[in-house]
Amino acid sequence: MNDQQPDPKPQPPVEPGPDDCCHSGCTWCVLDLYYEDLERYRTALAAWEKKWGRTPFN
């Protein structure tokens, strides 16, 4: 039996649609939140690739 948890490749956040931002200067703009999620994704992906290696198929 394998007790290790799988380590799936991180998936990018879903990009907001063109009508998701109201352009009224919200404190927590959907675009700001997306870019924060995107930065976390890129960091997680770099760590995953360092651990598992980068292949053309992943």
Write a short abstract of this structure:
With 58 residues, this protein is mainly alpha-helical. The chain is 40% helix and 0% strand.
Which labels suit this protein?
mainly alpha, 58 residues
Give a description of the structure.
With 58 residues, the chain is mostly helical. The chain has one helix at 30-52. It is elongated, with a radius of gyration of 16 Å.
Mean pLDDT across the residues is 88
What is the 3D shape? elongated
Radius of gyration, in Å, reads 16 Å
Counting H and I runs of at least 4 residues, what is the number of helices? 1
The helix/strand series, from N terminus to C terminus, equals H
Measure the end-to-end span: 26 Å
Spans of at least 5 consecutive residues with low confidence? none
| Helix proportion range | 25-40%
